[in-house]
Specification:
Number of domains: 1
CATH superfamily: tt1808, chain A
Radius of gyration: 16 Å
Structural class: alpha+beta
Helix content: 10-25%
CATH architecture: Alpha-Beta Complex
Amino acid sequence: MPAVKEKHDIKDYKLLPEGSPYQLIEGELVMTPAPTTIHQIISGNVFIKMTAFVKEKSAGLVLYAPVDVYIDEENAFQPDIVFVSKQRRDIIKDDGIHSAPEIVIEILSPSTAYYDMKKKFRMYEKFGVKEYWIVDPEMKTFELYALSEKGKFILSAGFTDQGTVKSGILAGFEITLEEIFLA
């Protein structure tokens, strides 16, 4: 008799102890080990620059992992960095973010790259994330996907080693790959 794979939902996810290294992806509890130091350096570089810009412009709030983003009943992600505009701050609750942030940034790790580039990509697209940034520390690449009027992500910027990233959501915000990968 084949084993039945149990599906989980937000209720199950919320029963996990605080700080548990899991994300809920399409009903599956997926363990995500601690990120590498280069991952954290990149995350810090982007977070500091974006936070300074957002604060100066009073544009909203930038949050970093771990923070739960509840997409639907079978998906609770912990993106590396998110931006929520001040107009949508009401989606931020005590237990996490209850809708799609305007910007989601994922820094790839060997253990999470598949989920970030496939399953989470589809969910972010489906639920209306306006910009999805994917940073690959190993390849030193950056991809910015913008949500089209048809509800599909379109690659709007892609760089390797050098280039300047400009957000369409945070007008005026830019960061160079040199700043992102600065160790």
